[in-house]
Amino acid sequence: MMVDEKKIHVKADVILKNAGILDETGTFYTAKTLVIHKGDITAIVDAGEMKGVDETGAEVVDCSQLVITPGLVNLHTHSPMTLFRGLAEDVSIDDWFNREIWPYEKNLQASHVHAGALAAIYEMINCGVTAFADHYMFPEAIMQAVMESPIRCDLAPTLFGLSDTIETEMEACRSLIKEHQHTNSRLALRVGPHAPYTCPPPVLKTMVAMAKELNTGIHLHVSETAAQVKESLKVYGKTPFQMVAEAGGFDVPVIIAHGLWIMPEDRLLLSEATTIAVSPKTYLKLAMGHGHLWDDSMSLPLASGTDGAASSNTLDPLEQVRLFGLLGKHFHQDATHFGCQTLWKILMRGHEALPFQSGKIAVGAAADLTLWQLTQPGVAPVHHPLAAILYSSGPQQVAHVMVEGKWAKKDGRVNMNHHHVKNMLTEASNHLMTLGKGSIPFTF
Fold first, then answer.
1. Distance (Å, whole) CA 114 – CA 257
2. DSSP secondary-structure letter at 361?
3. What is the signed CA dihedral for 77, 308, 277, 124, rounded to 10 degrees?
4. pLDDT (tens digit per residue) in 242-284
5. Sign of the torsion angle spanned by Cα atoms 249, 253, 257, 263
6. Distances from the Cα of 229 to the Cαs of 14, 135, 199, 207, in angstroms?
7. Distances (CA, A) of 157 to 160, 191, 192, 319
8. What is the distance between the alpha carbons of residues 32 and 49, in angstroms, rounded to a whole number?
9. What is the DSSP letter of 6?
10. Within 107-183, where are the H helices?
């Protein structure tokens, strides 16, 4: 954390006084004041040292009972799938996809997606999330929801390479990125191949080429199950990771969703611009197996995702990284493994995969912050602030959330119309259930 102890001359929109600060490295500082102007952190000083700070018209917040951290990132989700929360429980992964979720998704409309995304954004902000990476259909509807809210989004329109209309869909994706990339500081776009098993090699290669052409990245599912790896080896003689590499996928910034069954030889393929978003709650619920993510995890570029609410039920990346660490201790039968600093690094790495200049408590960094209230019973006493957040906290401990220096959640209330969001979600879900299931052209 860069701390400016010298005389400073800065303006202020918001001043967060007397806070505890837990930075991106997991280092804790006491009694610091953050100065925020035009969406960025412009000064960090000792509490009481405000010489050179123009406080005229600034909002001053007493944070003496709060801990400030960088905001959380949900690096892989399908935000509109709040529509399906609890719909497919206690079924096999094959039935989850083929008999429940994909048939309902066949009848999705843009209005459903807009409502589901709004509800997801509300939930994520409540959990302390300031940015998320989304992967879904009807991208314009998701963009609309993002613009109606205070959050940041890195959006990858889902492309199924086996679709009869894939060429039209790819051209629509290209046009969308060309039209909207760099038009809003809270929105970024990339190409979203669904997965190697739904995007045959020539199509996947074309999608990667499009990402290169547009100077952006890709976001796709890779090696989610042992069966996917086995089938890929049978059909192509290569693992799904090798299929992505052969298509040039690791030549661009890439978010790998899950990668649970990454093989030892796959690790050599990863580039410095690769991040793997892990969602262990989904793996547990759908009985997807041990996989290989917990084998020498620290050599992998892991970050926290939630998958969609249809599989993980909640959209809290803190819950996911907590589960990841506890499973790691259990699998290795070693309580010293997957310590707090390691889990915090995984949680913070999501910022590095996104283009928003967030994820640091430092002068010049984006003021995307989560402010934690850790004094309540159930969390207090706080002997170890990092442990208190990782192991004892949830949305109820998130007092405030700030994105670009503006309040996304204040005094425990998300800055969105709760009743409007709830009513839209209910109406969309009811309509979708009335439409029922459609037929799907391929299976998981």
1. 22
2. -
3. 60
4. 999 999 999 999 999 999 999 999 999 999 999 999 999 999 9
5. positive
6. 51, 22, 15, 21
7. 10, 6, 5, 26
8. 9
9. S
10. 110-126, 139-147, 166-180
